[in-house]
Amino acid sequence: MNSKSSQQLRKKPKVKGPMDFFVTTHSENVLKGRKDRKDIFGACEKQLRDKTCKAIAKWFFDAGIPFYAATYDSFKGMLDAVAQYGMGFKPPSMHELRVPLLKSEVEEIDKLKEEHKKEWATKGCSIMSDGWRDSIASKDIVNFLVNSPKGSFFIKSMDVSNVVKDADLLFHMLDDMVEEVGEQNVIQVVTDNASNYVKAGRLLEAKRQHLYWTPCAAHCLDLMLEDIGKIPKVKNALKKCIFMNGYIYNHISLVNLMRKFTNQRNLHRPAVTRFATSFITLAQFHKQKSNLRKMVTSQEWNTSKWSKDVGGKKIATYFLQDTFWRNVLYALKLTGPLVKVLRIVDGEKKPPMGYIYEAMDRAKETISKSFGMKEEEYKEAFEFIDKRWNCQLHRPLHAAGYYLNPEIHYDNVENVECEEVMLGLYDCIGRIVPDVETQEKILLELDSFKNATGLFGHYMAIRQRKTKSPADWWSSYGSSTPDLKNFAIKVLSLTCSATGCERNWGVFQQLHSKKRNRLAQSRLNDMVYVKANRALERRYKRKDTIDPVLLREIDENNEWLLGRMEENSSDDEGDLVFEGDDLTWASVSRAAGANDPIYGTRGATRVARESMPSSSRVDKGKGPATTSTSKFSRRVEIVDDDEEDEEEDIGEDGDYLDDEDEYDAIDDDEDYDDDEL
Questions:
Q1: Which fold has domain 98-216+504-542?
Q2: How far is CA 296 from CA 39, 182, 259, 534, 625, in A?
Q3: Rounded to 5 degrees, what are φ and ψ at 616?
Q4: How high is the pLDDT of residue 535?
Q5: Minimal CA–CA distance to 132: which of 38, 232, 216?
Q6: What CA–CA distance (Å, rounded) separates 376 from 47?
Q7: CB under 8 Å to 214, separation ≥6 — which residues?
Q8: For the range 77-84, what are the long-range contacts, defined as Cβ-Cβ under 8 Å and sequence gap of 24 or more?
Q9: Domain segments of the chain as ranges
Q10: Arithmetic mean of pLDDT, 100-108
Q11: By three-state DSSP, how is residue 74 classified?
Q12: Is the dihedral of CA 456, 457, 460, 466 positive or negative?
């Protein structure tokens, strides 16, 4: 009797039925119902989790899976699904993963593609050609994506090693992509700015009369930063920062010491492009200026081996040198606004076409204001900027977007109606809208937009000019001018750059690494198709939208405006080292001899010799020099050799090796805090 009752009291095993396929309980809700969990497992709770985590970690190690894979939402979703299934779950076999499950995921991505196609048909789209070189396999690879307000969609990846140098072959490749996407949907094709792509783009525009070829804005801006990096003061600051960054990050104990003084912050900051990474890292040095100085004057530093090492002495001298920090500030005043423009053109959810024109104007104004309108300070940089802007980045689509952006249009009527802007607008109307009758309607409807009549003058439309994205604003308030509305939405929904592809090149390298049988190649194509588009979808869902007010940050919140470029002193040499004490960093710098030349330059040698007593000077042919003078002369000769070595171009690959290595090691699809880099 007792055994029978105990069997009745025994909990029946959970039986899974058809409804379990349709109903999935969130893990949080499941745990809420387990109030007795602690009572059941007690002290074993931690041990059970540790055991499970070790099993997962072993799988990561055995398979060689990157650690950042644990940050994916799909990783947590997988574990939740297994936990909810319960004991006895049979994992998928290799065949299931690479055949039926992969096929199922491809079908899911195809459904997503159909949703994107609807957006392409209604709002137009941009074909993006994002190229890169696999240095190991010596191959040139191009990824083709299509961008619209719904985000970017990966189409395919191609090996173009035999095509990339031939403009005619590139043209046919781009033309085939337009045909595949549908010419009626394509408004622009965005590619690299290399000369072969420029020629191919012109051939494409000649054949396809109703679309534009547009150079990548991010690449143009990166070239501007590269050009500015050749200015002597900027070059000097970059070379020193590159040396210090490399020296610090090549020694773990020194990294730990640095992070102790910088509140666990890193100095290196990977960014969208190579040279943006360099200048953002430069900004991190400037931000941590006081902490870095405290580090090299601390007791820990003085008792460490770094204070006695040649490289350590060098970085300590740089950190205490006011001329170095003046050069850093000079470089940041020139490049800070351009880096902010680069962030705008890399936007995902709110396309930047309506902002790029105004953003470049504001960037130049900000640079000139930061130098107190002293043209000699920024003239050379402006020559570099204008050269790139006028020949590569100044396009009709940019002018049309500038005119049609309500945030800008109503505040800058005189500027938006200048000849070059109007020429760009009319050129776009004639090229994007093939029907002459529709063109005439658009030209008539422009007056309503210009004079803010109809819905354009509604108080809500006025209020949301600066708070709503330009394309959304037209969608909400452009109904009284339907043809102009459709045209404006197409222009303002366009991207400006081809940087939208996820740069996790490992899969693409595998795709083009060697010959395979047809079945294996097809499977690998499917894997790339699935991985790339899932990554792009994650990026679109996670990416913060660009606030239209972001334009204000270019000038009003430019942190480099806070400092003043002085001739003989750094911007904060008068700052106190310790509160309540009268010791300044200028005093520390002088005491440490940081402002004395590390090397005896030719100029310094001449000045030193002129200041010597006549009896101490070395006259050729008039007897041997004194011992002290001979040593001084030998030191100068050695230093001159070092100086010549130091004049190497900062654009050399070796100089930026640390930047690119760390950048490539990070999955661009993910956002990282300083602590995670």
A1: Nucleotidyltransferase; domain 5 (3.30.420)
A2: 54, 61, 13, 46, 38
A3: -95, -10
A4: 84
A5: 216
A6: 68
A7: 126, 188, 189, 190, 191, 201, 395, 397, 496
A8: 80/26, 80/27, 81/24, 83/27, 83/30, 84/24, 84/25, 84/27, 84/30
A9: 46-86, 98-216+504-542, 597-664
A10: 95
A11: helix
A12: positive
Q: Where do runs of H (alpha helix) occur along 433-505? A: 436-451, 459-463, 470-477, 482-492
> Which residues are 156's β-sheet partners?
144
Radius of gyration of the chain (CA): 31
The structure tokens 């509160």 sit at: 579
Whether pLDDT at 353 is above 50: yes
Cα(548)–Cα(468) distance, integer angstroms: 7
- CA 542 to chain centroid, in Å, comes to 15
Q: Which residue did the predictor score with more confidence, 393 or 168?
A: 168
pTM to 2 decimals?
A: 0.72
As a three-state string, the secondary structure of 285-310 is: HHHCHHHHHHHHCCHHHHCCHHHCCH
CA angle 149, 341, 246 (to 5 degrees): 115
* Distance from the first to the final alpha carbon of the chain: 66
Q: Please, what's the b/e burial string for 212-238 (b: 16 or more CB within 10 A of its CB; e: otherwise)?
A: bbbbbbbbbbbbbbbbbbebebbbbbb
Which of 181, 171, 176 is CA-nearest to residue 145? 181
Q: How far is CA 540 from the centre of its chain?
A: 15
Residue range 318-335, pLDDT digits in tens:
999 999 999 999 999 999
Which tokens is 372 given? 């107190």
Give the integer Cα–Cα distance in Å for 331 and 534: 39
Strand partners, 139: 134
3-state secondary structure 117-160: HHHHHHHCEEEEEEEEEECCCCEEEEEEEEEECCEEEEEEEEEC
Angle between helices 289-296 and 274-287 (to 10 degrees): 70
Does 369 have pLDDT greater than 90?
A: yes
Taking alpha carbons only, the member of 345, 360, 472 closest to residue 407 is: 472
Structure token pair of residue 72: 């994916």
CA-wise closest residue to 235 among 648, 554, 609:
648
Of 416, 406, 413, the C-alpha closest to 467 is 406
- Per-chain mean pLDDT for the chain: 77
By three-state DSSP, how is residue 584 classified? strand
Specify whether the CB–CB gap between 249 and 665 falls below 8 A: no
- For 190, the enclosing helix (H) or strand (E) is strand 186-191
3 state DSSP class of 41:
helix
Residue 466 and residue 161 in contact, taking contact as beta carbons nearer than 8 Å = no
**What span, in angstroms and rounded, lies between the C-alpha atoms of 671 and 677?**
10
Find the angle CA(216)-CA(222)-CA(227) to the nearest 5 degrees. Answer: 130
Q: Which of 416, 538, 524 is nearest to 470 (CA)?
A: 416
Query: What kind and span of H or E run contains 336?
Result: helix 322-345
Q: Please give the backbone phi and psi of residue 114, each rounded to the nearest 5 degrees, phi first.
A: -65, -35
Q: Which two tokens stand for residue 444?
A: 């008539």
Most distant CA atoms of the chain, gap in Å: 125
The two structure tokens encoding residue 7: 């069997």
